[in-house]
């Protein structure tokens, strides 16, 4: 009696679709994590405004005035002692930079005025004031 011999094939793991799915998941989580990162890490209680626009440009410089009156340049966590020099340096590097002043609603007005005066004295052309809608 003759036996039928089957041709045995080794099972193969096809990894091409798995690589595609992993790449898709990687891109998805990278994009979603970027959107979760808040552009303004320092918590400031902004005043409300009626005609506020949500417009952050790529060459935007954040100037934050905390409720205690500290003036912070970009994402610094301590007050900047060389605030005027940093502004002048940034204006020389990028004359079209937009400086956004984020003043806490309880911040002393003289500190906000000082920041605005410093920006104007440094020759900043584009100044915005950030408020909540």
UniProtKB/TrEMBL annotation:
A Pfam family recorded for this sequence: ExbD
Membrane topology per the entry is: Single-pass membrane protein; Single-pass type II membrane protein
Please tell me one Gene Ontology term that the record gives under cellular component. Answer: plasma membrane
Q: Keywords on this record?
A: Cell membrane, Membrane, Protein transport, Transmembrane, Transmembrane helix, Transport
What is its subcellular localisation? Answer: Cell membrane
Spell out where the chain crosses the membrane: 12-37
Instruction: Tell me which domain of life the UniProt entry assigns to the organism this sequence originates from.
Output: Bacteria
Give the GO biological process terms: protein transport
Q: Which GO terms describe its molecular function?
A: transmembrane transporter activity
Gene3D superfamilies attached to this UniProt entry: 3.30.420.270
Q: Which PANTHER family match?
A: BIOPOLYMER TRANSPORT PROTEIN EXBD-RELATED, EXBD MEMBRANE COMPONENT OF PMF-DRIVEN MACROMOLECULE IMPORT SYSTEM
Give the family from UniProt: Belongs to the ExbD/TolR family.
Protein's name in the database: Transport energizing protein, ExbD/TolR family
Whose protein is this, by species?
Answer: Megasphaera micronuciformis F0359
């Amino acid at each position: 009696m003759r036996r039928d011999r089957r041709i045995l094939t080794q099972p193969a793991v096809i990894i091409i679709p798995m690589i595609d799915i992993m790449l898709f998941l990687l891109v998805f989580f990278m994009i979603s994590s970027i959107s979760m990162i808040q552009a303004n890490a320092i918590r400031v209680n902004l005043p409300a405004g009626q005609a506020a626009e949500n417009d952050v440009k790529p060459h935007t410089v954040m100037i934050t005035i905390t409720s205690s009156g500290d003036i912070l340049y970009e994402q610094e966590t301590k007050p900047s002692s060389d605030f005027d020099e940093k502004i002048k340096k940034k204006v020389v590097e990028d004359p079209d930079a937009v400086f956004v002043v984020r003043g806490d609603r309880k911040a002393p007005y003289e500190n906000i005025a000082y920041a605005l005066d410093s920006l104007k004295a440094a020759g900043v052309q584009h100044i915005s004031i950030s408020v909540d809608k």
